[in-house]
Design a protein that fits this description.
Bound molecules: phosphoenolpyruvate
Distance between the termini: 10 Å
Number of helices: 11
Helix content: 25-40%
Shape: globular
Strand content: 15-25%
Structural class: alpha/beta
Radius of gyration: 17 Å
Largest sheet: 8 strands, parallel, barrel
Strand order of the largest sheet: 1-2-3-4-5-6-7-8
Order of helices and strands: EHEHEHEHHEHHEHHEHEH
Number of strands: 8
Length: 252
C-alpha cells in the first residue's frame, strides 16, 4: 500500500545510453503519458542531453543529472558543478550509484561530500546505497548499507534530509534481471528507515522516500509498489522502454 504521507517517486536513469533522436522519442513518450503529478517522475539522461531534455520535457516530469562534483567551478576537467546544474534549471542529481562507486572510485566520503555540495547549491539528491551479492551472502547487507549511509548522516544536517530520496539498489539486482523479491526489498527498506530514525530523527525516518532499484520492469513494479516501505523506484534498463510509463503509474 502506498503511504499517503510520502509522494511516490519514480526515477529513470538512462545511464550512458541514447542519442539525440532516441532521447527525443523517450521524452515525447513521457510527455504523452498524461502524468498527473501524483507520482514524482524524474529522468536522468547523460549530461550532454540534460539541456535538450530540460527544454523538451513537460512538467510535472523533472530532470536529474547522473553525477556532479563538489566545487562550484574551476579546473576540474570533465566534471559538472551543482551550481551549473542549478543554472541549467536541473532540479535533481543522482549520487552514489553503484557504477560510480565500483568503476569510478566514488568513496563513501566523496559521495557524502557531493551530497552536501549538491544540497547547499539547491539541488535535490537521489542517494544510492546497496550491497553486492558477496556481501549479501556473507550476511552483512545492513552493515554495508549503513556504512554507506553513515558517511552522509555525518556530513549533512537533519534539515537537509528533506532534499534527499534514498535509493536502495542491491548491486546484484542492477542490470541483471534478478529483481529483489518484494519481501527482500521491504525488509531492507524498513531497516534503513529504522536506522535513520535512530541516527537522524524519527521525523526524517517517517518522511523520507526510500525507493528500490534493480531490474524493476513493467511486470514486477506493482507488487513491489505494494510494500509499505517502498516509496518508488529508480529504473535503469526499463527507463529506455515504453514500459517506463507503466512503472511511473504503478502506484495508481
Ligand atoms: C540502476 O542502474 O539504477 C538500475 C536500477 O538499473 P536496472 O533497472 O537496469 O537494474
Amino acid at each position: 500500500m502506498v503511504n499517503p504521507n510520502r509522494r511516490f517517486f519514480v526515477g529513470g536513469n538512462f545511464k550512458m545510453n541514447g542519442t539525440v533522436d532516441m532521447i527525443t522519442a523517450l521524452i515525447e513518450q513521457l510527455n504523452n503519458a498524461n502524468l498527473d503529478g501524483k507520482t514524482e517522475v524524474v529522468v536522468a539522461p547523460p549530461s550532454i542531453y540534460l539541456l535538450q531534455v530540460k527544454n523538451a520535457l513537460r512538467p510535472p516530469a523533472q530532470v536529474a543529472a547522473q553525477n556532479c562534483y563538489t566545487a562550484d567551478s574551476g579546473a576540474y576537467t570533465g566534471e559538472i558543478s551543482p551550481a551549473q546544474l542549478i543554472d541549467a534549471r536541473v532540479e535533481w542529481v543522482i549520487l552514489g550509484h553503484s557504477e560510480r562507486r565500483s568503476m569510478f572510485g566514488d568513496t563513501d566520503k566523496f559521495v557524502a561530500d557531493k551530497t552536501r555540495a549538491a544540497i547547499s547549491a539547491g539541488l535535490k539528491v537521489i542517494l544510492c546505497v546497496g550491497e553486492t551479492k558477496e556481501e549479501r551472502e556473507k550476511g552483512i547487507t545492513m552493515e554495508i548499507n549503513e556504512r554507506q549511509l553513515e558517511a552522509v548522516t555525518k556530513t549533512i544536517d537533519e534539515k537537509d534530509w528533506e532534499h534527499v530520496v534514498l535509493a536502495y539498489e542491491p548491486v546484484w539486482a542492477i542490470g541483471t534481471g534478478l529483481v529483489a523479491t518484494p519481501q527482500q526489498a521491504q525488509e531492507v527498506h524498513a531497516e534503513l528507515r529504522q536506522w535513520l530514525g535512530k541516527k537522524v530523527s524519527q521525523k526524517v525516518a517517517d518522511s523520507i522516500r526510500i525507493i528500490y532499484g534493480g531490474s524493476v520492469n513493467g511486470k514486477n513494479c506493482r507488487e513491489l509498489a505494494g510494500q509499505p516501505d517502498i516509496d518508488g523506484f529508480l529504473v535503469g534498463g526499463a527507463s529506455l522502454k515504453p514500459e517506463f510509463v507503466d512503472i511511473c503509474k504503478s502506484a495508481d
